[in-house]
UniProtKB/TrEMBL annotation:
Keyword Glycoprotein: no
Pfam family for this entry, one: Zn_ribbon_RPAB4
A GO CC annotation given for this chain: RNA polymerase I complex
Protein name: DNA directed RNA polymerase
UniProt family annotation: Belongs to the archaeal Rpo12/eukaryotic RPC10 RNA polymerase subunit family.
Taxonomic source organism: Dendryphion nanum
GO BP terms, alphabetized: DNA-templated transcription
């Protein structure tokens, strides 16, 4: 038996982390005309990829938001 270095396992970890960072930078909007979800990166033109409409609505957060009343 000869020594065979592990070449496939270590590279997937770095690509998975970079994919997670890229997905974290995407913001999901909803088109005002065709109601399709549009994911945009920072600096991309604000335009629906399906119909070209320029009015996009930002989706609300799924986290619970709690305010303290005075």
């Amino acid at each position: 038996m000869s020594y065979q270095p592990n070449t496939g396992g270590g590279n997937n970890i770095t690509t998975d982390i970079s994919d997670a960072v890229d997905n974290a930078r995407l913001v999901t909007y909803k088109c005002g005309d065709c109601d399709q979800e549009v994911k945009l990166k920072r600096g991309e033109p604000i335009r629906c990829r399906n119909c070209g409409h320029r009015v996009l609505y930002k989706q609300r957060t799924t986290r619970m938001v709690q305010f303290e009343a005075r």
